[in-house]
Amino acid sequence: MSVLKQKGVSLIELMVALVIGALLVLGLVQVFSASKTSYLLAQGLSRTQENGRFAMEYLQRDLRLAGHFGCVSDQAHFQANANNAFGELFLSNRADYSTVSGGNFSDALRFDFSIQGYEATGSAPTDTVTIGETPTAGAAGDWTPALPKILQTAGGAGDPPAPVRGSDIVVLRFLSPESAEVTSFVMGSPSASGSVTVDAAQLTAMNKGIVKPGLYGIADCRSVTMFHASDVADSAGRTTFTIQAGSGKINQSPFNIADNYDSAQARVYRAESVAYYVGINPATNSPSLYRLRFNVEPKGTAVARTAEELVPGVESLQLLYGQDSAVAANSRPTGYINSSETASGIKLTDGAQNGWHRVGAVKVGLLVRSPDRAAAPKRDTDVFVLGTKMTLPADNRYRSTYETNIALRNRLYGN
């Protein structure tokens, strides 16, 4: 009678197998962890680069348009003895730009300023700005000069997102690069409405993507006049703007003899008044680059503002301004930009207007972070944006800085 012996694995063999299996699993976990870290870092890098490129694209485009007021720039309009070559119907006294209409946000219609900057306190070159994991909202007095009403927010319903403390702000005003041919111009009078008629197809192309614009400028190569379209009517391929002036209207003054435009030469442009700043997204409590757009719809009686979130992850915007060597109102620009100043350092030898009229270049610096945590180690070297030191948090987000120098093409002497 044969006896079958039971066969199996000994305890020692089982322990050896378990150790080998554990080593293999540990190796797989390490490979997976390294792959995930590499993926998160690569994704954070690519998103940061993408957002930085988009942010710079938006800023460069609108900064280069600053001062564009038809075929003659604002610099030429404000030269000595310009003989009222720059007109705004928003003024009750067309020689006094402080008489502008528009309600609480009337400063948005100060088209005599094509560019205005606001320097965040403690963010100049050689200063240090502390970047928190979550951004901190600033108050009006955290900038120099203090923020006007058009940039202030109380955090209520309908208010734009609050600006981030330590980040600069810039306001730009210009006419759109697209325009529509004027087919008829009627001057009007204090007691009668004026009108401007344009090619409807060209106007549609000019206003594409803009909801109910109502601010425009009519210009030839001699002068420019800003106006509000009190009413808009379409007929037979033409669009007619009715220009009404008076109490309760955005247009406080009618066209005058200086606004006698020849329909064969004049064109109508959409008037843009915008502000760029880093704001706090109220839904995510994270920083983003915002564009604040100001407008008065046709038949409107006050300026309204709309905040557009352009690029998430922008933590800081730093700006330096290049000013012409000649800043006096009675002198011509030399075309030689010999300074790079913060907004609070703009030379104003003949009053607040003239200093900003002589800004011909802007240096832009951005600090951009990845939208999500990217397993990025904290930098062991200092980070600077246009000379401003940034103290960064240890939150594992990937960060990068971007800088560029932008010439304001319509402010270059001779253009």
From TrEMBL:
Coiled-coil residue windows: none
Domain of life of the native organism: Bacteria
Listed transmembrane segments: none
Protein name: Prepilin-type N-terminal cleavage/methylation domain-containing protein
GO biological process: type IV pilus assembly
Signal peptide: none
Pfam families the record matches: N_methyl (PF07963), PilW (PF16074)
